UniProtKB/TrEMBL annotation:
<keyword id="KW-0732">Signal</keyword>
<protein>
    <recommendedName>
        <fullName>DUF4252 domain-containing protein</fullName>
    </recommendedName>
</protein>
<feature type="signal peptide">
    <location>
        <begin position="1"/>
        <end position="19"/>
    </location>
</feature>
Amino acid sequence: MKKKLLIILALFVSVLATSQDLSKIRSQYPEAVKSDEVSSKLDKELSNINSSSTPVLLAYKGSILTLKAKFAKDRKIKKEFFKEGVSLLESAVKANPQNIEIRYIRLSVQENAPKILKYNKDIEADKGFILKNYETTSSKELKGIIKEFALKSEAFSDLEKLELL
């Protein structure tokens, strides 16, 4: 009986810690796009994330790797970071295509990726998914982050931005 209680307690603590980490990551992600320092900090925090992690955390890890590519100096390293980041991000989308947060993360990466990389084929699909599912998103924190992103985004028209207000 004690053993079962300890296992349940450990799982509860693990879930609680993950949700707190996710909240911290969510709030820092928009700043990481603008700052090498913040993106490096998030990269360290996400260093233990791998393909067996939750898809949302995998998506954030992938997006941070694409930011490392943005801030890297060496062309070869830029390419390696970007390819790895996109691979992780696409794995997250494949694992949970109905997750609005993952679709927001991918949209943010695609919108900011240099056009020459041709990583922009899902912008319209992700934007449409966000617009369709925004109202039913239960997390106020996530809704606020998505709304803030969309209002600054070039992918959303003025009319679409009004839908999110």
